[in-house]
Amino acid sequence: MGAGIDGVDEARRISALAATLDPSRFEYHAAASEGGVFGDFNRANTRVVDGACIFLNRPGFEGGSGCALHLAALDSGESPIDFKPSVCWQLPIKVDWETGDDGTEVATVRGWTRSDWGPEGDTMAWCCTEGTRAYVGDRPVIEAMAEELDAIVGTEVFVELRRRLGNDDAR
Description:
By secondary structure, this protein is an alpha+beta fold. It folds into two domains: 7-80, no CATH class; 91-164, no CATH class. The protein has helices spanning 7-20, 29-35, 68-75, 86-90, 141-144, 146-153, 155-164, and strands at residues 48-49, 52-53, 56-57, 66-67, 93-99, 105-111. The strands form three sheets. Strands 1-2 form a two-stranded antiparallel ribbon. Strand 1 and strand 2 (52-53) form a beta hairpin. Helix 6 (146-153) crosses helix 7. It is globular and about 55 Å long.
């Protein structure tokens, strides 16, 4: 199973963006042209080619390795959030929402685990969250993933999270 698609609007956006990808930057452009980018009729997941998402340019691909949608966003000066399926740009951040004792929503920010994906998590390739390069960076997550955190939890919660972490001016 490829990347999960969050509804009809996201499927339309991904489909439209895929049609604009430069073949020199999209390793599986020919496969996408022939069979589409979705793995099912309902367009609920991206298609899997050679064991991974159709948009994943493999290491050694001349146009650049990594997500073709991500690369296209950067090439056009746009945010990858606007190009990639939501599940992809949110990784490795997971937010659990619960109702607090006073009725307010409580957001707990954490990393994804295999169990978050249900039974599929046991067999899923975890290129984003496993390995020696996962969760390693030169800046705190609150800074490095500020745009993603703000989009996931909303500005009010993000500002409060920054305040609690002592990063009021990190943005």
